[in-house]
TrEMBL record:
<feature type="transmembrane region" description="Helical">
    <location>
        <begin position="225"/>
        <end position="244"/>
    </location>
</feature>
<feature type="transmembrane region" description="Helical">
    <location>
        <begin position="342"/>
        <end position="362"/>
    </location>
</feature>
<feature type="transmembrane region" description="Helical">
    <location>
        <begin position="304"/>
        <end position="322"/>
    </location>
</feature>
<keyword id="KW-0812">Transmembrane</keyword>
<protein>
    <submittedName>
        <fullName>Acetyl CoA transporter</fullName>
    </submittedName>
</protein>
<feature type="transmembrane region" description="Helical">
    <location>
        <begin position="429"/>
        <end position="447"/>
    </location>
</feature>
<feature type="transmembrane region" description="Helical">
    <location>
        <begin position="40"/>
        <end position="60"/>
    </location>
</feature>
<feature type="transmembrane region" description="Helical">
    <location>
        <begin position="383"/>
        <end position="409"/>
    </location>
</feature>
<feature type="transmembrane region" description="Helical">
    <location>
        <begin position="151"/>
        <end position="179"/>
    </location>
</feature>
<dbReference type="InterPro" id="IPR036259">
    <property type="entry name" value="MFS_trans_sf"/>
</dbReference>
<dbReference type="InterPro" id="IPR024371">
    <property type="entry name" value="AcetylCoA_trans_1-like"/>
</dbReference>
<dbReference type="GO" id="GO:0008521">
    <property type="term" value="F:acetyl-CoA transmembrane transporter activity"/>
</dbReference>
<dbReference type="GO" id="GO:0035348">
    <property type="term" value="P:acetyl-CoA transmembrane transport"/>
</dbReference>
<keyword id="KW-0472">Membrane</keyword>
<feature type="transmembrane region" description="Helical">
    <location>
        <begin position="111"/>
        <end position="131"/>
    </location>
</feature>
<dbReference type="InterPro" id="IPR004752">
    <property type="entry name" value="AmpG_permease/AT-1"/>
</dbReference>
<dbReference type="GO" id="GO:0016020">
    <property type="term" value="C:membrane"/>
</dbReference>
Length: 464
């Protein structure tokens, strides 16, 4: 698949970067009887589940020829719609998390978020590949389940897997709609839900803010968001969110694509990454709260310095090892066994270190947001910050893929008389671009570290 086609497909994630446009509508329009957040969460998830159940067949058929522009556009539209629904659902979930958790436990919300995302990531990648793999299906799953043999066919197809997950979403959504009750912040019965008078006193101000948010309406919410954007603290944070991920864009978006291009199997990539990411995604946020408790931006900067230097170097070495071991003669250094150890060691290290720094930064970022937002417009304020955070990851993805596609020159390959393909010439833009981006990352740290420290020390009033 051409990098230009992948750049087009990357556009499907843009709703998460643009959801701020309709976040105040989600905050202000709801049914008090059904619940402020459930009014959006339930119908949106029902629509998404129905789309997954009813619309996946066309996508599965088109995926076989994804490189053709017509199919790229069709697949992109399907997932763009799905992302739009999930972005809207995310607004409601962010707002619900602020009222579902007490003020002292609000910082634990990002930990729940991180753990849940990693479990879902693991199930959707490892789970699907394990059930879709032809050999595993024929030698393990069918005998285990007592099913008849079907050589060359996986136990689960892409369409079947997505349909199952869509059906699962429908069932869970119906259960949430029927049995999960939202706390009515306008009710005088809140005292019965609090453990003691002290806790009630601590949460009293938050309840008033939530009551205010339910009454201010759509236009007033937009106005307050605009006032928040004009705050110097928020502008400094936006500048950080929009720029810090550019130096990491190759590692985040292109590294494993390049590894597959160099000869690493897609199955190895898809199985290895979630297998390492899942335990680290659960353990790292928990350990981070013990090490940097109360200082999320110190955690953020420590991870970032490590990310743009050491992790970038490990990524480059890993790709060179993959190219030599899988795409070349199989020898990197010191014989077959040594080369195999170097290859797997660098592959595991690259995957693990990226998972660690990503988890550290994501957890720090979300914890900082949760403690700084104005509860009066909690859902929209969280969406404001998350929108710029998502945009800061979206534009570098398309940008670096475009650069890779433009500046990479494929080699000239021809089959010799002995039947062996021989390639010569060409230019790979990945490695020089990684060097440039790492330099930009070091410059970012030098010029932005004081700004990060500045916003970390600001009082809550500076954000409201």
């Amino acid at each position: 698949i051409a990098y230009t086609s992948q750049a087009i497909f990357a556009l499907c994630s843009w709703p998460f970067s643009l959801k701020l446009l309709w976040a105040p509508i989600v905050d202000a329009c709801f049914s008090k009887r059904f619940g402020r957040r459930k009014s959006w969460l339930v119908p949106i998830q029902l629509l998404a589940g129905l789309l997954m159940v009813g619309g996946i067949e066309g996508v599965a058929d088109a995926s076989a020829t994804l490189g053709k522009s017509l199919h790229v556009q069709g697949v992109t539209m399907f997932f763009f719609t799905l992302y739009f629904l999930m972005a809207t659902q995310d607004i409601a979930v962010d707002g619900w998390a602020l009222t579902m958790l007490s003020k002292k436990n609000r910082g634990k919300g990002p930990i729940c978020n991180s753990i849940g995302q990693n479990i879902g990531y693991f199930l959707s990648y490892v789970g699907f590949l394990a059930l879709n793999d032809v050999d595993s299906s024929e030698n393990l799953w069918r005998p285990l389940l007592g099913l008849s043999s079907r050589p060359g066919v996986g136990l689960v197809s892409l369409g079947g897997f997505v349909k199952f997950m869509g059906s699962f979403m429908l069932v869970v959504t119906i259960l949430v709609g029927l049995f999960k009750k939202e706390v009515d912040m306008t009710s005088t019965d809140m005292e019965t839900l609090l453990p003691n008078k002290k806790q009630q006193s601590e949460d009293e101000e938050e309840d008033d803010h939530e009551l205010d948010a339910a009454e201010i309406g759509i236009m007033e919410t937009y106005h307050r968001l605009w006032c928040a954007v004009k705050l110097p603290a928020v502008q400094s944070l936006i500048m950080i969110l929009l720029t810090y991920r550019l130096p990491c864009a190759l590692s985040d978006n292109v590294k494993f694509l390049k590894a597959v291009e160099f000869g690493l199997s897609k199955q190895t990539t898809a199985l290895l990454s979630p297998t390492i990411v899942l335990p680290l995604g659960i353990l790292v946020p928990i350990l981070a709260t013990k090490i940097w408790h109360g200082h999320p931006l110190k955690q953020f900067m420590a991870a970032y310095k490590f990310r743009v230097t050491f992790v970038a170097l490990i990524d480059v070495l890993m790709l060179l090892a993959v190219r030599a071991y899988r795409g070349g003669n199989g020898i990197i250094l010191g014989g077959e066994m040594t080369s195999k150890a170097i290859f797997w060691g660098l592959l595991v290290a690259s995957t693990a270190f990226q998972a660690i720094v990503h988890s550290l930064q994501f957890n720090a970022q979300m914890t900082f947001f949760a403690h700084r937002v104005d509860p009066a417009i909690g859902g929209s304020y969280m969406t404001l910050l998350n929108t710029f955070a998502n945009l800061g990851g979206t534009w570098p993805s398309s940008f670096v893929m475009y650069l890779i596609g433009q500046f990479t020159i494929p080699p000239n390959c021809a089959v010799g008389d002995d039947g062996v393909e021989v390639c010569s010439g060409g230019r790979d833009a990945y490695f020089p671009l990684q060097l440039i981006l790492s330099g930009l990352g070091c410059m970012w740290i030098f010029f932005m570290r004081k700004r990060v420290q500045y916003i970390a020390e600001l009082p809550d009033d500076a954000w409201r």
